[in-house]
Amino acid sequence: MEESTGRAAQIPDPEVAKALDAAYTCGSEIPGMMEGTGIGRQYADDYLKTLTDIIGRPFTGLRVLEIGCGTGYLLQRLQQEGADVLGIEPGCQSGQEDSGVRIVRGFFPSVEVKGEFDLIIMHSVLEHLPDPTDFLRTVLRQLTPEGILCLAVPDESGFLQRGDVSMLFTEHYSYFSPDSLYRTIAKAGGGDIRVKCSTFSALLYASCTRAAAGDDEIRSPGMEADLRLVTEYRRKVNEFTEKFQYYLEAVRTGGLELGIYAAGRAVNALVMSGVSMARLRFFDDAEMMHGTYFPSISVAVEDREDFIKNPPDEVLIMSVSFGARIEAALRPLVPARVRFQQLEELCK
Predict the structure, then answer these.
(1) pTM beyond 0.85, yes or no
(2) Cα gap 142→194, rounded to integer Å
(3) Residue 110 contacts residue 158 (beta carbons within 8 Å)
(4) Alpha helices per DSSP H over 56-89
């Protein structure tokens, strides 16, 4: 826990950092963010609307940099709006060559990214950095005097409150709440800071300008609440894991087969609880995950077609943001005997 900002943080490990750098350079990606189809298109539409509201003027003529641009899809949309765009991404990802935008291969900062920008964008980047404050200082230096930095990070406040271990991704160093994100930006020298929760998913959208806040310790009325939230998290993790274990064992005791949808969110709890993988099935809508395995777990990931052809007796949906939508889409496709369980209900 970073006491100056209330930011919940994973302690950096050199071996993990080395592995992550290699993965990013190879173009490792989590599907779904900022793509031209499916859920990625919905993420992009929502963020583009937010950017439009923040900028408050047409994008025509603006010099725009996106750090961690992935396939370049969002930049392609901004370029169509008349912006002069540049992206930087450490690894080559499918779709980049077709985006029609210039993408620098590498990590920011880079000698190939020169000058100042009217708008700098970072979506799902800041949580991957061991020192987000220092990184933001570097980013802010490349804003024009009137420039705006816009960023998006996962909103982990709900996960912290529930003691939900599914938020603990190896590649995430920081677990932000709205207040801790605000204080992190302020500590880095951001001014006119605005943080809001996305209405589409569990994301925080923030914007700021360049200011002279310096390195002064930032405290706000929400600091004590954040400190309590982080302090209580470990106890709540134990409670959550016990409930999760009890639920799985109760389903299996009844002789039922359990399917876990958005299964990546269940892996931490499964490993920590030490439960048997018998009569468990994993499902995910991400095409690239079909037929793959999570480390140390010998259960292959199935897709929606598999689910429809051979549905399990009960389904646990591990997504809080999209759980209700997933259930609404799946229910009409399977027999009425199939029972659905939402993660939020399990946490009560």
Answers:
(1) yes
(2) 19
(3) no
(4) 73-80
Closest to 78 in 3D by CA, of 109, 110, 101:
101
The single-letter DSSP state of residue 34 is: S
Residue 85 burial class via C-beta count within 10 angstroms: exposed 0-12, middle 13-18, buried 19 and up:
buried
Tokens representing 339 are 């029972």
Give the whole-angstrom CA distance, residue 91 versus residue 101.
Answer: 15
pLDDT digits (tens, 9 = 90+) for 242-267: 889 999 999 988 899 999 999 999 99
Dihedral sign (CA 61, 62, 68, 69): negative
**Smallest Cα–Cα separation from 93: which of 58, 68, 61, 67?**
68
150 C-beta neighbours (distance < 10 Å), count: 21
Segment (H or E) for 122: strand 117-123
Three-state DSSP class for 309? Answer: helix
Alpha carbons 219 and 223: distance in angstroms, whole number:
6
Q: Residue 58 is encoded by which pair of tokens? A: 């047409």
